Amino acid sequence: MNAPAFWEIFVTYRKVGRLRYLSHLDVARGMERALRRSGLPIRYTKGYNRRMRLHFGQALPVGAEGKAEILGIEMTQPLPPEEIARRMNEQLPPELAVTRAWGLPQGAASPFKALERANYTMVVAASPPVAREDLTEAVTVLLAAKEFLLLCSEGEGKVVDIRPRIYDLAVGGDGDHLELHMTLGHSQDNYLNPDRCLRALEVLMDRSVSLRWTRLVRTALLSRPGER
Amino acid sequence: MLPDDVLLGVRGPARYLNGEWNVSRPSADARIRLALCYPDVYQVGMGHLGSLILYHAASLIEGVSVERCYAPWPDAAEELRRLGLPLATLESHTPLRDCDLVGFTLQYELTYPTLLTMLSLGGIPRRSADRQPGAPLVIAGGPGAANPEPLASFIDLFCLGDGEELLADLLRRLLSLRESLGPREGWATRDRETVLRELASLPGVYWPDAYEPRLVGDLVIPQPRSGVPERVSARLVENLDAVPFPTAPPVPWVETIHDRGQIEIARGCTRGCRFCQAGMIYRPVRERSVEILLHQAEELVDNTGYDGLSLVALNCPDYQRIEELIGTLQARLSPRGVSLSLPSLRVDTMSVELAQRLAETRKGGMTFAPEAGSQRLRDIINKNVSEEDLLRAVEAACRAGWLTVKLYFMIGLPTEADEDLHALAELVHQVVRAGCDALGGKQRRLKVNVSVAIFNPKAHTPFQWNGQAPRAEIEAKQELLQSLLQSRYVKLSVHNVGQSCIEAVLARGDRRLGDVLEKAADLGCYLDPWTEWFDAPRWHQAFDGSGRTAEEWASRELDPATPLPWDVIDMGVTRDFLLRERELALSGRPTADCRAGSCHACGNQRRVRGCSGVLPASCGGKSK
Ligand code: SF4
Q1: Atom 8, ligand 1: which residue's CA is nearest?
Q2: 3-state secondary structure of B385
Q3: Minimal CA separation from A48 to chain B, in Å
Q4: CA–centroid distance, residue B291 to ligand 1 (Å)
Q5: Neighboring chain B residues of A63 at a CB cutoff of 8 Å
Q6: Shortest Cα distance from B122 to chain A (angstroms)?
Q7: Per-residue pLDDT tens digits for B208-246
Q8: Which range of residues forms the domain containing residue A100?
Q9: Gap between the Cα atoms of B198 and B177, Å rounded
Q10: Spatial CB neighbours of B356, under 8 Å, sequence gap ≥ 6
């Protein structure tokens, strides 16, 4: 019996190890080249300057890892998802490998639409160093707040209430090793960049403390309950 | 190369990663480690086809590990210094000082201080004289080697002419030397001079230390010591079909300046523009056969996944079977989403037609290079383009839908006067009118971008005896053009006078310039081709004590009756020919392309028997 085949395939892939230094654009270009090498029947846009019809999710910052990023691929002929994954992986380094593939039944909504939250693990470095209790305190204050207005540069100086976009926030790690575990909004209109969350904590701590991450991993993308 | 926490803090960290697609793991038991270095950043170096060709040619030789190294951006260079880490190769992170052979490509004079700084960062003494036994051999090639003298104190051996066969010869000779000398320790204690002498006996290798610099008149001329030839002849690959070509080059993750696949359809040019060094030192024309090119193009796309392919030559439309090549390539590659481009076009309607067939969009603009504004001046520089050619080509481009026309000119050319600049401006205005007429209702969207470079006399060209126009003159010319080109359609951009001047000094410099270069590097001159990093006052300081200002070096007129510092290098064209061309230039007489039938005995008839200006693919030509 033939495996079920689909016109539109979604894959999850990782961006880990040394390839975490790639920008979103680097990843997109790299995926497109890998797909062209694979010889898979990818659909192109029409007209001048034809591009592959690929659908990427929210960008990961340069230096950040992703354990399960989503990429949508449109095909000119239906193929089984397993075959797509196998042929893509022949053309991708392990640090950018496809880990899962599934087909989108015709007429079904894109999985991007169902995305609601994303989980992050962040290793934090503070200068000057801060005590764990102080960071925990800031987290508690942020979570207790009804709203938290932050100037977000990308929205042309737009002020955004980030509080509703924080689903969960906790301090982890041990000793001097400070970690933050975050669950942040990840839908089109409720997205929060983990860097923003860190800026908010910075504001809450002390003006003279600067926080930055030395490791950042997007560990999972989560859909609304009831949707996959 | 850089530790993780540092990579997070520098600009564009992905360019420092090893292991792009198609890069194989370096073998641990290689007997020779070759570092191919490009004295500019990764994005520039990875776009250079010549370097990819050498990388491939060397990788075919068993026992050699070929690795790459690029200039780190200043923030990363600073981190290396701060952490005391040596500059290392991408592939195996081997510090340059631990490689056996370190090779640089000389594409542009302004990269020379960067080259010196890469040596220092890599832990290699900059001056050849200071290198101990066991230190890497430092070699260099490319067009800059046509006048090697400014770098002669830093480079152990120069490779002249076409590099792929020469580099392979060099590596094989080094491998057999290694065989006879035993393991690395034996190598290290070996008398450096013996090794250099051995390698310098290969055709096309210039060993500057074997030539004594002597002041003759006002120039330092290298004079052969015993056992080396009077002149060293550049290598020539006669049959491009017979040499290796990279169809599985490393695929960069980051965007490079030439972010597509490249196939080399021909090498060399015989049109004979008198200012053009490439057109003089790469003769005759060698073409690759259509059959091989089709094969290479498909392999390249299969192996890289590039969405674009450039056909590379000094002059693409002159390729004899260009129509056939493009037609077939397009039929095969277009269904795979791959676009073709021809970066070098002539000023004529045929070129526009070719571009029209290839371009999927009209976004990029159509480029023409008339080089000079008046017919008189174009005859002097032997740029065989008439006003009518240009206007017709512009008209054709605009009819075909292009809204942007780019024009390349040069100022400061020999005998140039204000009339010539007025003619230039008039020509631009005519282009605007022709473009507007052709565009009709869309004429308001016409853009004519005029780029004006500064004439730079180069070694081995008919203008090698001419000086560069002094700064004040150039600036006055630039201002005149600014005022003459006031138009809503025209955007004028002019080159940086300071950068051009340093380029000119080095292009015709002698061995004394080594001190200036070293001082410039010490003062922090680095990545000088980048206008943002070029620091004129530093350069000013670097020339202190050299007896002249940069401008004085650059504007020197040289005497055709006395020897030149680069006479020791034979690039194929003879001094006689260049002198004849100089005379013809001054009397305003053009010289036809020798491919049209008449040989001008440029000197290449000495190495290519029955030369007709072009060696068609796979015929190979008969050499003596
Ligand atoms: S030798 Fe004659 S035919 Fe050959 S390149 Fe020179 S001028 Fe042209």
Answers
A1: B613
A2: coil
A3: 5
A4: 26
A5: 7-8, 13
A6: 23
A7: 999 999 999 999 999 999 889 999 999 999 999 999 999
A8: 7-108
A9: 9
A10: B400
Q: Are residues A132 and A185 in the same domain?
A: yes
Angle, vertex CA A60, rays to CA A59 and CA A64, nearest 5 = 170
Q: Is residue A209 assigned to a domain?
A: yes
Domain end among A108, A128, A160: A108
Same domain, A124 and A217: yes
Say whether B21 and A52 touch across the interface (CB within 8 A).
no
Give the closest of A22, A32, A49 to B253, CB-based.
A22
Does residue A133 lie in a domain region? Answer: yes
Q: Which of A26, A52, A62 sits opposite B337 (nearest CB)?
A: A52
**Same domain as A140, residue A162:** yes
Q: Tell whether A127 is within 8 A of chain B (Cβ).
A: no
CA distance B291 to B447: 39
Whether residue A65 sits in one domain with residue A127: no
CATH code where residue A119 lies: 3.30.2350.10
Task: Tell me whether residue A155 is in a domain.
Answer: yes
B16 chain-A contacts, CB cut-off 8 A: 21
The answer to whether residues A21 and A50 belong to one domain is yes
Determine the residue among B8, B24, B333, B358 to mutate to test chain A binding: the one whose Cβ has the most chain A Cβ atoms within 10 Å: B8
- Å from CA of B319 to ligand 1 middle: 17
- Of the three residues A57, A79, A108, the one that is the final residue of a domain is A108
User: Which strand (E) or helix (H) includes residue A215?
Assistant: strand A210-223
Ligand 1 centroid, distance to A225 Cα (angstroms): 77
The per-type count for chain A, helices as H runs and strands as E runs, is 5, 10
- What ligand 1 atom has the least distance to the C-alpha of B284? 5
Q: What is the pLDDT of residues A154-208, one digit of tens each?
A: 555 688 899 999 999 999 988 889 999 999 999 988 999 999 999 999 999 876 8
Angle at B521 between CA B519 and CA B523, to 5 degrees: 70
**Whether A131 and A95 share a structural domain:** no
Which residues are A71's β-sheet partners?
A11, A56
Put simply, the answer to whether A63 touches B13 (Cβ < 8 Å) is: yes
Does residue A41 belong to the interface with chain B, where contact is any CB pair within 8 Å?
Answer: no
- Which CATH number do you get for residue A18? 3.30.70.580
B247 contacts in A (CB within 8 Å)? none
**pLDDT tens string B63-96:** 999 999 999 999 999 999 999 999 999 999 999 9
Q: Is residue A228 part of a domain?
A: no
Phi first, then psi: what are they for B102, rounded to 5°? -120, 115
- Residue with tokens 């926080």, as numbered in its chain: A211
Residue A33 three-state SS: helix
Q: Do A219 and A151 fall into the same domain?
A: yes
The number of domains in chain A is: 2
- Domains, in order of start, for chain B: 4-231 (3.40.50.280)
- Beta bridge partners of residue B366, listed in sequence order: B405
pTM: 0.94
* CA distances for A179 relative to A121, A197, B496, angstroms: 7, 13, 50
